Amino acid sequence: MGRINFDLQELQAFVAVAERSSFKQAAEDLFLSQPALSRRIEKLEEMLGVKLFERTTRRVQLTNIGRVFLSNVRTALDELEGAILNMSDLAAHRTGIVTLACVPSAVHYFLPDVLKGFTERFPKIRVRIFDESAQDVLNLILAGEADFGINFAGAEDPEIDFLPIYKESYVLAMRHDHALAKRKKLSWKETASERYISVSKSSGNRSLIDNALAGVEKHPVIFYEVNHVAGILALVEAGMGVAAVPRLSLPKYMDATLVGIPLVNPSIHRTLGLISKRGRIMPPAARTLFDMLVQSSKTDKSVQPK
């Protein structure tokens, strides 16, 4: 095999276009002209002998080969950057980068205080956070693109080590001025006449609820479907209806607008855990952050049910 002849600028140009889905915006980010950026991409494609992007007058998107190459390039650039940063003190893991994948609710409830303490100990270590859906988080761990994750999916996967850190219940989110807002708990049957807002059927949350309610006589009727819990809560806040959501999906410091009432008969729970790829040795800095999250989950009362 002949020697591969390209430089970092071409790889950086490729990543910039892939992330922006635009030659114009990527060129602005890199302080290049569009023709100069295009030449870098063309040179890279010519060297690889493959087409990395599908280009039309309206959009730019990665080809299937381009998506695979992007994952590999990101990993390679991270490792190269980490090697450069860590030359003098790798053993002490005082510099470098930690990549963490987690469901969005975990960002609010588990990360801020731990990251603050981690940064105070290791101010030169950077942390990259992928806040994605449960399935995307699992895929990032399995692909080796994140050091570890916080997720409620993966416990049954033979390639995943799953360490439970929190068991959360589902609550009914509603406005504070709703007729049921003062209740201590609500059965699903009592709320069957409410206008429900839900995530789509492809969501793990929706599947969990549908399976749990399979034997319930009266089912809630879904009037609105959205793709993300943030959209659900926006509609609830606007007075469009109520929604069954995991407790951690509600804002950590709720104002007077929304309340979450525990749902019973049946009670539905899910377990959040720290996940990592089985058999993979975590880099020292990632292991330190992982251990700090474990310790925090044992002592932090702010994530305990009220």
From TrEMBL:
It comes from the Bacteria. Keywords: DNA-binding, Transcription, Transcription regulation. The keyword DNA-binding applies. It holds the Pfam family LysR_substrate. Gene3D superfamilies: 3.40.190.290, Winged helix-like DNA-binding domain superfamily/Winged helix DNA-binding domain. Residues 6-63 form the HTH lysR-type domain. PROSITE patterns: HTH_LYSR. CDD domains: PBP2_LTTR_like_4. InterPro entries: HTH-type_LysR_regulators (IPR050950), LysR_HTH_N (IPR000847), LysR_subst-bd (IPR005119), WH-like_DNA-bd_sf (IPR036388), WH_DNA-bd_sf (IPR036390). The keyword Transcription regulation applies. Belongs to the LysR transcriptional regulatory family. This is LysR family transcriptional regulator. It comes from Undibacterium rivi.
